[in-house]
Structure formats: structure tokens, C-alpha cells
Amino acid sequence: MNKSFRLLGACGLFALVAAQPVFAQHDKVIDEANAAWNAAFNKGDAGALGAMYDEKVVLSPGNGTTITGRADVEKFYKGLFDAGFRDHTIDVVRANRVGNLIYQTANWTAVAEKDGKKTPYKGVVLKVLTKGADGKWRTTAQTWNAAP
């Protein structure tokens, strides 16, 4: 009987832990990284945004192409800013940290403004960050889809 109660208690504890959101396991690193990313994007600062990516990053902007390397990622974002993109948000669906690797799936929104007309966009982003020897977290892979 005692064994049954211990097993039942262990199962209950496991269920309680499993029910906790995975997002809480990353020690606020994702929150901080997403806040910094949004801030740089919304200021239109391609340099600051580029610095958040690994030198060998692979990024796919959802159009069937890939962009590799920090410099080309920075050019890509500069083009978006020149086209009037701002007001970016990130709403994490799920995130997890395994050692020096973090992956997240999130919903995103942004607005493009041209000639006084605002067009909202939204989509889903998958991002992988790794912690470098310098202690900084940088995006090493990212892909997303988009819909107006």
C-alpha cells in the first residue's frame, strides 16, 4: 500500500512538472533576446540587429531562399527597414533550452508603412540560438513564414 501511494505521489509530481510551460525553463534568456531583437528592429537599426546573429548564421525569410552570414543578414534587414517595416512583436508559443542551445517557435507581427498606408503582416518564426565562448547568445538559424 505504501508503495502504491509513493508511486501515485511520484506520478502526481511528474504531471505537475510536465504541466508547467516549457517557456519557463529558459531563465528569461528568450524574453531578453526577443526584447532586444524587437527594440533593434523597431528602431530600424540593421547593425544592432545583425550583431545578434552568428557570423555563420543561416536565415530563410520564407520565400524559398536562404541568406548566410551576418553581413548579408544585416543587408536583408536594411532592405526591410528601407521598405518601411517596423512595429515588430514576438509571442512565444514554445521555447526550450538544452545546455548552450535554445530553440523557440513564436508568432510574430510587423507593419509595413509606405506612402502613409500601413500593411500588417504576421507569421510564425522558428529560431535557434547558441551561447558563444564570450557568453553571448546569438541566432545561428532562423526561418519564418509571412502573410499580409
TrEMBL record:
Pfam families: DUF4440 (PF14534)
Gene source species: Caballeronia calidae
Top-level lineage group: Bacteria
Signal sequence coordinates: 1-24
Keywords associated with the record: Signal
Residue intervals of the DUF4440 domain: 30-138
Entry protein name: SnoaL-like domain protein
InterPro entries: DUF4440, NTF2-like_dom_sf, Steroid_delta5-4_isomerase
